[in-house]
Amino acid sequence: MAMFSGSDKKAVWCAPETCFFATRTKAPSMEPSAGDVQVAAAWNLRYLACVCLTLATFWTYDYISLLHEEWSFLLQSRWTKLKALYIVARYIPFFFIATDLYMIFTPNENPDKCRMLINIYSCFGVISLTCSECFFVLRTYALWNKNRNLLVTMMFALFLRLALSQAL
Prior knowledge:
This protein is mainly α. It is about 70% helix and about 5% strand. Strand 1 and strand 2 (about 20-25) form a beta hairpin. Helix 1 (about 35-75) runs antiparallel to helix 2 (about 80-105) and helix 2 (about 80-105) packs antiparallel against helix 3. It is extended and about 70 Å long. The relative contact order is 0.10. Mean pLDDT is about 80; it is low at about 1-10 and about 15-25.
């Protein structure tokens, strides 16, 4: 990944939180200039990108090494809503991480495209989090011998949290 190429004065990376603009400085000085700070931030972003890529590599290796066992189990069991929820929860993070890596490693000078990528990234994150929370509730409900009081309490807490997050 080249941070600056040829006569380009500006490079842009989409980050999950914001679009990041880094400018090239001409000559070093004793006092750090705004350009120096931006270049340092760009290097920190590059370090973050390498860490994200490393984590994605290990995560993908884990998925690939267990894929045969997982699919043989999934294909032998009957298809239910819970199985569909499991498949969505298990494989949406691939799209989430792919979008994240695309935003990190692809320079993008179009703020609208950057915003669109951030929205897609956020949607994948919300879907992944929602599926994980559903599994948490269902697992807890099953471990407590299908206690209706516990289920009502967890659902109330979930909807209360959603209502409060929408109000803020």
